[in-house]
Design goal:
Blueprint: E1 5-9, H1 14-25, E2 29-34, H2 42-50, E3 58-62, H3 68-78, E4 82-85, H4 92-97, H5 99-119, E5 124-130, H6 154-173, E6 177-182, E7 185-186, H7 195-205, E8 208-211, E9 218-219, E10 222-223, H8 224-235, E11 259-264, E12 270-271, H9 272-283, E13 288-291, H10 307-313, H11 321-335
Parallel strand pairs: 1-2, 1-4, 2-3, 4-5, 5-6, 6-11, 7-10, 8-13
Antiparallel strand pairs: 9-12
Length: 339
């Protein structure tokens, strides 16, 4: 099998750490970068990195993707063949109070990634977009062939901007780029600002959980292993121009350039109260629910149409909610030493 040299950005993150591990286990050489910022507990990021340190084909560099000179030097030195770009300032709610963090990481940082790929003949850039780009859209399931010009958070706007920037580089420089719109990723080693850990923490401690939109949300919860499997499949098949693309009826998910966008989700939305119920069963304790209105920047439902990813890559999410939640709770109790 061909051994690739791959850059994984955000390698201390939830998805990045497992993605790097998957590539390392199949024999690729992985260089991981992360700035280890304090958006959430740094110890969790260090613990994720510790799981990678014994791989001889892994190296870590502490680096901020917004550092233009350092990123240029990294690409010039390492000569990556492919890039999995997962580093970003995450979080819809945080973007309302800390907007500049999203410009620094998600716009300037992404620009530095594109420039590195352009100048050093990277074969394929796969980058994280988000289901948040669907914003005010209400047609379900969400399709990459639909217009997404009405974001409802700055985080979503930054991810939409990434897709536009990627298309420009694909068009101008024939850089193959693939954007993946992630749908509510959960599982072991997840981010502590996301609902599964927030809920698990309070349920185990007998504290109330905040349930927004009075629990009427539906989310396309997608288990981390299914996400990483999808990313790996996409990385191995660089984007190609769509020769049937028409400028008279433009398809937002493709182009005459080597550019593609896909949804990557479970294709099976779950009511938030049902997800909480699965957590209660796995933890063995009932939640005390504090029902609240929907928060600014949030959307009521997410539902991924993954038919393109299935047709072109054989992608098929395989982890039912109950199985995924049980695995998450097992990790949570062990990591946090909860009886």
């Amino acid at each position: 099998m061909l051994i690739l040299k791959i850059l994984v950005t955000g390698v201390a993150g939830f998805i990045g750490s497992l993605q790097a591990m998957r590539l390392l286990e199949r024999g690729d050489e992985v260089v991981g970068i992360d700035n280890i910022n304090d958006y959430y507990n740094v110890e969790l990021k260090q613990a994720r990195l510790a799981r990678l340190k014994d791989y001889s084909n892994f190296s870590f560099i502490k680096l901020d993707i917004a550092d233009r000179q350092a990123m240029a030097e990294l690409f010039a030195e390492e000569k990556f063949q492919r890039v999995v770009h997962l580093a970003a300032q995450a979080g819809v709610r945080y973007s309302i109070t800390h907007p500049h963090a999203y410009m620094d990481s998600n716009i300037i940082g992404f620009m530095n990634i594109l420039e590195g790929c352009r100048h050093h003949q990277v074969e394929h850039l796969v980058y994280a977009s988000s289901s948040s780009v669907y914003g005010a859209n209400t047609k379900m399931p969400f399709s990459v062939h639909d217009n997404v010009d009405h974001p409802v958070s700055l985080y979503a706007a930054s991810k939409k901007a990434n897709e536009l920037m990627a298309h420009t580089y694909s068009h101008l420089y024939q850089l193959p780029t693939t954007g993946l719109r992630f749908f509510t990723v959960y599982g072991p080693w997840g981010r502590p600002d996301m609902s599964p850990i927030l809920f698990a923490k309070n349920i185990t401690q007998g504290l109330p959980i905040n349930v927004f939109n009075y629990g009427n949300h539906r989310r396309d919860f997608t288990y981390i292993d299914d996400i990483v499997t999808g990313v790996t499949k996409v990385l191995d098949k660089p984007a190609q121009p769509n020769l049937s693309w028409s400028s008279d009826n433009p398809d937002p998910g493709a182009s005459t350039a080597p550019y593609r966008v896909y949804n990557i989700g479970n294709n099976n939305p779950v009511h938030l109260l049902d997800f909480i119920g699965a957590l209660e069963d796995a933890i063995g304790k009932k939640a005390i629910k504090n029902l609240l209105p929907m928060q600014p920047g949030d959307v009521p439902d997410t539902f991924a149409d993954v038919s393109d990813l299935t047709a072109e890559f054989g992608y098929k999410p395989e982890t039912p909610i109950k199985v995924g939640v049980n695995a998450f709770v097992e990790w949570y109790k062990k990591y946090h030493q909860v009886c």
